[in-house]
Specification:
single chain; mainly alpha; two-stranded antiparallel ribbon; two-stranded antiparallel sheet; 17 helices; transmembrane; membrane
Length: about 475
């Protein structure tokens, strides 16, 4: 007895896009800042703020545009990256607007500059430009692997961006800005993305050579002498940035990013050890003869010293803000972090979070940052190509290092660096560059989570005869 059966190819099961989940999370990401905006108005002026509807519509429109573009052009992307970034951006706008209402800051601006210009409207404009760049990334970057073609071009562009501030005047002792008319651009914010692209392309090609084991000393595989060239070059470049621009933050970000990606590419613990030792040696060496860096270290060690209080009062005021916040905070609009001065809405905006949201609110903010990093790492694990894995981990690592450097400086864990808190602090370069970073991560996650196309059915397979006795 024989039975003839037709066999067909079974298509792959369609993976869920999770876009509705993203939309639901975006609703919360818009509602929470709007309620915070209302809270500030009631606390400061005892009335519902007149601009609440406009603010809600503005942040909702930006979030809606981002969601529609992701739904259309990256339907399988991670559903949490856009809502998390929107929530941080929205809360940052509320905190900046809250500081704009401070009578002390308004009086100080009138005395020094003759007039006061609020920063919240400008930050909302920068956020709109950031969303526009986010949309442009998703529209133009159809496949993240295209960036691999520009490995060495990206290196040249990154070097130009890092060197450019040397030719412009210093701001607060550090040369990190490029002034173009009324606009100030911080090239380091964009350089971190371009550097990550270069490192991803370079390490994907060279990782086998860098991973070769040499002599083993004290349980560590020491790299060969010629393999030390890349890390020595990057170490020297970070030191030069620190010397000529007195920019501790960018140096830490630049070198830390390379060490993280080098470790991920080679899986050699020795690179981490070498990186930490060389980073410490470079920082100590520069601090001994560079007055600006040495001054920041002194302020970090003695923030309440009476002899330097006029210069270090911002750090002291920030630490007192965290102490005054306690566990649950004083409430939005009811703190005194504006005593820090004009840096309260940029470098030290986390101190406003610490005072008015308390320890619980500060941990919530850091948890949101941690979730963005976690989703980036998850994207790196899911990516199918080595370039995408390295780029996702590089962008996530750069984001994590920047948050650590800023939060550590404000909280007194490390010397102050002058970098801005991503999405929260006032600053056009930071918010625009970080929206581009989120756009690239979303593109990589879409490629990683997109189901493979089902193979076309074979005519030969359909005519296959299976004979059973």
């Amino acid at each position: 007895m024989s039975v003839v059966t037709n066999t067909t190819t079974i298509g792959a099961i369609e993976a869920p896009s999770r876009r509705n989940t993203e939309l639901a999370m975006l609703a919360f990401a818009v509602i929470i800042p709007v309620l915070a905006y209302l809270n500030v108005g009631l606390a400061v002026n005892d009335e519902v703020p007149s601009g609440m509807i406009g603010y809600g519509l503005g942040i909702g429109l930006l979030a809606g545009v981002g969601h529609l573009v992701v739904r259309k052009f990256a339907p399988y992307a991670d559903p949490l990256l856009l809502p998390l970034a929107t929530l941080l951006n929205g809360l940052g706008l509320v905190l900046i607007w809250r500081l704009d209402q401070s009578p002390r800051l308004i009086d100080r601006a009138n005395r020094i500059f003759g007039s006061f210009t609020p920063d919240a409207p400008k930050q909302l404009l920068y956020s709109a430009i950031g969303i526009a760049l986010f949309v442009a990334v998703l529209l133009l970057l159809k496949d993240h692997r295209i960036l691999q073609r520009y490995t060495y071009i990206s290196m040249a562009v990154a070097l130009v961006l890092l060197i450019l501030p040397v030719f412009f005047p210093a701001v607060n002792g550090a040369k990190i800005w490029v002034s173009i008319g009324p606009f100030n651009v911080q090239p380091g914010e964009f350089a971190k993305i371009i550097i990550a692209i270069f490192f991803s392309g370079y390490l994907m090609v060279k990782r086998d050579a860098l991973a070769l084991a040499s002599r083993r000393v004290m349980g560590l595989y020491l790299p060969r002498g010629r393999d030390l060239g890349p890390i020595l070059a990057v170490w020297a470049m970070s030191i030069l940035i620190l010397v000529f621009e007195t920019d501790l933050g960018t140096s830490l970000l630049f070198f830390g990013l390379f060490v993280i990606m080098l470790y991920v590419a080679t899986e050699r613990t020795s690179w981490i050890v070498f990186g930490l030792v060389m980073s410490a040696a470079g920082a100590v060496g520069v601090a001994t003869f560079e007055p600006h860096v040495q001054q920041r270290v002194d302020f970090w060690l003695n923030p309440f010293a009476q002899s330097t209080w006029e210069q270090s009062d911002q750090i002291g005021q920030a630490l007192m803000s965290f102490g005054a916040g306690g566990t649950l905070g004083t409430g939005l609009g009811q703190g005194n972090s504006d005593l820090i001065g004009f840096a309260a809405n940029s470098d030290f905006i986390l101190s406003t979070v610490g005072e008015e949201f308390g320890l619980a609110g500060t941990m919530a903010f850091l948890l949101i940052y941690g979730l963005i990093v976690e989703r980036g790492v998850r994207t790196a694990l899911a990516a199918r190509d080595p370039f995408g894995k390295l780029l996702a981990i590089g962008l996530s690592g750069a984001f994590a290092i920047q948050v650590f450097v800023v939060a550590g400086g404000v909280m007194g864990l490390i010397p102050l660096t002058g970098m801005t808190m991503p999405f929260v602090a006032a600053g056009g370069s930071s918010v625009i560059a970080n929206w581009a970073l989120i756009g690239i991560l979303i593109r990589i996650s879409d490629t990683a989570r997109r189901p493979a196309p089902a193979p076309a059915p074979s005519p030969d397979a359909e005519m296959t005869q299976v004979v059973r006795p």
